[in-house]
Amino acid sequence: MVNSEEFSKRLQIILDYYDISAAVFADAIQVGRSSISHILSGRNKPSLDFVLKIVQTYPEVELYWLLNGKGDFPKSDVKKPPLTPKPDSPAPVISDEKLKNATEIESSTIAKSFSGSEFSAKKIKRVVLFYEDGTFEAFEN
Q1: How confident is the model over 89-101, as a mean pLDDT?
Q2: How far is residue 43's CA from residue 77's CA, in Å, rounded to a whole number?
Q3: Predicted confidence (pLDDT) at residue 133 exceeds the cutoff of 70
Q4: 134 located within any domain
Q5: 119 and 110 in contact (C-beta within 8 Å)?
Q6: Tell me, what CATH number does 53's domain have?
Q7: pTM
Q8: What does the record give under GO molecular function (predicted)?
Q9: What is the predicted pLDDT for the residue at 140?
Q10: Containing structural domain, residue 41
Q11: Is 44 a domain residue?
Q12: Is 130 strand, coil or helix?
């Protein structure tokens, strides 16, 4: 029988070993994030499916160690895989000089397009900024 408290400690060891959050771990083994939270807190016991997903996704985790705490973690014959996949071909790198030139050209083009007489007669009434976290700010004249 699996001791929930001891299992949650071993699960935390796995998270620390890979240096990942519970949310990233849940996504990796394709379970709900709340499942990880409930198991770590001791509210729920791990299901067989949950345990098998861990062992299949993370080859360093030995099944016997995960369930009973006996055995080795990480397995000595398995190398730690990289957390992020490496691309097949490296992405092209833009030099700082080219980036600076592009920015200067873009800035001068924008300045020229707004210096026309049709924009000089118009006044800005409101500007709204939308942030990535779903919030916004509105500024009115």
Answers
A1: 64
A2: 34
A3: yes
A4: yes
A5: no
A6: 1.10.260.40
A7: 0.52
A8: DNA binding
A9: 80
A10: 4-68
A11: yes
A12: strand
